[in-house]
Structure prediction request, 452 residues.
Amino acid sequence: MAKIQFPDGFHWGTATASYQIEGAWQEDGKGESIWDRFCHTSGKIKNGDTGDVACDHYHRYPEDVALMRELNLSSYRFSLAWPRIQPQGRGSANAKGIDFYSRLVDELLDAGIRPMVTLYHWDLPQALQDAGGWPNRDTAGRFADFAEIAVRALGDRVRQWLIFNEPKVFTVIGHRIGIHAPGMTERDPYWRSTHTVNLAQGQAFRAMKSCDAELEIGTAFNLSPCEAAADTDADRAAAQRWHHYVNGWFLEPTLRGRYPEEAFPDAPPFDVMGIEEGDLDAIRIPLDFIGINHYTRTFVRHAPEMEDLRALPGGPTAGQKVGPKTDFGWEVWPDSIYESIMQVTRDYDAPLIEITENGCSYGDGPNDQGAVDDGRREEFYKGALTSVARAIADGAKVRGYHAWSLMDNFEWAEGYDQRFGLIHVDFATQQRTLKRSGRWLAEVAANNGFDG
Ligand code: FCB
Prediction:
């Protein structure tokens, strides 16, 4: 057994998001978010589930921070619910909303845990959606104002920030596929939403740095290596295009001030995006670190029926070696996180990296003795962490790893059906139970490594 060891000072953490855990959807002056509206619309979420109560973290955060301590964690990534802070998405801050996050940050610091804050993990104030949402260019300015309020309130204690969580996912799934809030599906507003989000990121970055130039600011990009579904030229070309689209649509404008036109076999959709002169310079920013959210690799097939990209995820077809599937149907393939880390390291001159999410869904619950024996999750983390260590040995500057997630929570369109936690949550009683995988990760964090 080889010893898998991580660099001194490596951060061991977990990640969560406001809507997925907080509950208290109407408390202390919080405004409605697009996820409140979406979940309260019948037929949108599996089993009619909502985040109204979720893990009730809004009230139980001291218990949850104590559990992080039991897990020996040194970092915790969580997000701010924008409508808790600006109920209508504009104007002055709601003191009670700020106060909640302030108390959470203090609780973390007292426990020796570094708070890492995501500004936007998908819960846009509904009032801004009513004004056009992300397809409306004005939303960028609203977001920059919110970023400044957040930094002024918490920046003295929170030094690591993430602007967006998975810009690729919330734009496409919320604005084109329509199974996430706000449930939009039209082509042109979708492409426009991606441009507003890029603009918003540039404006927020500058607003935050002008408050405090020493803040460390990143974004959590979802990255996935793309492979051809079948061993054909057409599928190989499609996989390349999909790679530029999935991995490049936000990273390229952010770090290089360009949209990856190589994602399109025909004309790119730039004409419908509302790009104005100077935008690409405004979007380009020197992020202090790159957050990587990674779950699995993607097989891609040539899809002539698919507008713009002529490619779609699908497959693999006969003959491919594949790994087992999690309960979400995502393939377990430990090499893929290595590939994503090395892609960023190669393409962008070895930037500082934090793994901001990585994890798996398995439904294991308490057995007769009350223990949660989720050996498959432990195996998943062993494989992934072995790959992260290999990437570090090969020159990647990874300084932290956040497991998704601290505890089972509201998994968007899937409701409470998919469980990603290191801690099991009984949603009827709110009882938390540390799973076997959580105990294992606590040992890893304590030893800064494990026997692989
Ligand atoms: C990511 C999201 C996160 C969670 C995991 C499973 O795409 O960022 O909120 O739902 O997937």
Observations:
- The chain has a mean pLDDT of 98.
- The chain has one domain: 3-451.
- The chain has 15 helices and 15 strands.
